[in-house]
Design a protein that fits this description.
The chain is α/β, with parallel strands linked by helices and about 450 residues long. The chain contains 16 helices and twelve strands. Helix 1 packs antiparallel against helix 3 and helix 1 runs antiparallel to helix 8. The longest helix is centred in the middle third of the chain and has 39 residues.
């Protein structure tokens, strides 16, 4: 790489030029996003100074939002870009050295999306490992009959529709692109015409950064965020501080705004857990409920968000969306012998209840026998007010405390036990689990 340092040009001026260049060709969602991408581009030129290699994830909900165009511009500005739409783990580890390239993975949703993620676990593991220094990939070299230690540490940019696996997004600065609105315009990008100017800017940026590697390596900035967010933003803020006070302020403001946005996303996950907890009370001893019944009972719960959900009543679409995170879907059910309508069963919710909600003050009653025409047995949660000494101030007729054992309605005679049945409750287990010596349903072990 040829270096053309302009002595009179300060670091702040260089970063300003990089940001203006990005915004000339791409509509970025916010000024904070433009600052973040600018600082990430600069940070790729200082990888030898970092302990953490921050990921940049360029996301959008649909096509034609500018993801690939932004990746084109970034590719001309980062240090030693390695651009691909897919790469094998073996090729990746052999492309990374002591001064690694910047990996740029376009169409990442085709690699890590829901339909393909299971086929690329090794690649995801390598990208995650490369977030932190000294996490090598160990392979057996058959030619020398010795293990080979391959570095994984490198800066990575990914672009794709939707989200990536949580383990990747948790290590990334996430820029969510949008389609251009009417009236928004950008300059068209033509490689032959525009690339030489971008490469010149890259060379000047590289010379400035590499002249201060020792300063960057020894810097200990005051961080506005903590934990994993601090890891991801530290190198960007160090570069900003090197450029001067104004860029330092902008970098910290960007880190705060990005972290607050990510916490709002996390809040949606917390809301789904709150829904699971409230559904325990909603179902009580009922086995199946219509969606309309569930919503009515949710709306009547004290101190719940469902009666005023973003200024309106929580509806069937909201219920379906939150439960879909746990692979729980509505289906035709019969409530109290009524006609089939869309609804949910306690048996479908049990696994999510057992995994994501606490059990203090609650006990499980086990129901054996056929369930809604299905063989096996189910388990539902019954509220036990005796454990807390409290009942709802607006107890509805369906809320039950201290429920008596359900032996009053004897179970149907069981058919001859299936060899793959749980020895406690009769639940049909995966035959491979039984072959491995696991003969008890996880719910029975808990």
């Amino acid at each position: 790489m040829s270096l053309h340092l302009v002595p009179e040009q300060s670091g702040a001026e260089l970063l300003d030029e990089v940001k203006a260049t990005l915004q000339r060709y791409v509509i970025l969602p916010t000024e904070a996003a433009a600052d973040a991408v600018t600082l990430w581009v600069a940070a790729t030129h200082a990888v030898p100074a970092w302990e953490i290699a921050t990921r940049l994830f360029i996301s959008s909900p649909q096509k034609r939002c500018g993801k690939s165009r932004l990746l084109d511009i970034i590719e001309a500005l980062v240090y030693e870009p390695l651009v691909t739409v897919n790469i094998s783990p073996a090729a990746l580890v052999r492309s990374i050295g002591d001064d690694p390239p910047t990996l740029m993975l376009d169409e990442a949703d085709t690699v890590f999306g829901p339909k393909a993620a299971g086929d690329h676990e090794d690649l995801r593991g390598l990208i995650n490992a490369g977030f932190q220094r000294n996490r090598p990939y160990i392979r057996w070299d058959a030619t020398i009959r010795k293990p080979e230690s391959c570095p994984t540490f490198a800066m990575v940019a990914l672009a794709g529709i939707g989200n990536m696996p949580d383990t990747i997004m948790d290590r990334a600065v996430i820029v969510k692109m949008r389609r251009r609105a009417p009236g928004e315009s950008v300059k068209s990008f033509r490689g032959r015409r525009d690339r030489p100017g971008l490469l010149d800017l890259r060379n000047r940026l590289h010379a400035w950064i590499r002249a201060h590697l020792t300063d960057l390596e020894n810097a200990e900035p005051d961080m506005p965020v903590d934990d994993r967010a601090a890891d991801a933003w530290e190198s960007l803020i160090i570069v900003a501080d090197l450029a001067g006070e104004e860029w330092g302020k902008r970098a910290r403001a960007a880190a705060l705004s990005f972290t607050e946005r990510d916490e709002e996303v996390d809040a949606a996950g917390q809301l789904s857990v709150r829904l699971l907890k409230d559904l325990k009370a909603v179902f009580g001893v009922d086995r199946t409920l219509y969606t309309a019944t569930i919503l009515d009972r949710l709306h009547k719960l004290d101190e719940s968000p469902w009666a005023n959900y973003y200024g309106r009543l929580f509806d069937a679409r909201d219920l379906s969306k939150l439960l879909a995170q746990y692979e729980i879907n509505s289906k035709n059910v019969r409530e109290n012998g009524g006609p089939p309508k869309k609804g949910y069963t306690a048996d479908d919710l049990y696994d999510a209840w057992s995994r994501y909600t606490p059990r203090e003050g609650e006990r499980y009653e086990r129901y054996k026998g056929d369930i809604a025409g299905q063989s096996g047995s189910g388990e539902i949660l019954v509220a036990d007010a005796s454990a807390t000494g409290q009942t709802s101030a607006t107890a509805l007729s369906w809320e039950v405390a201290n429920v008596a054992p359900v032996a009053a309605t004897p179970p149907k005679p069981r058919r001859e036990a299936d060899p793959n049945s749980c020895t406690e409750c009769g639940y049909l287990l995966d035959p491979t689990l039984v072959q491995a010596g696991i003969t008890i349903h996880p719910g029975c072990r808990d």
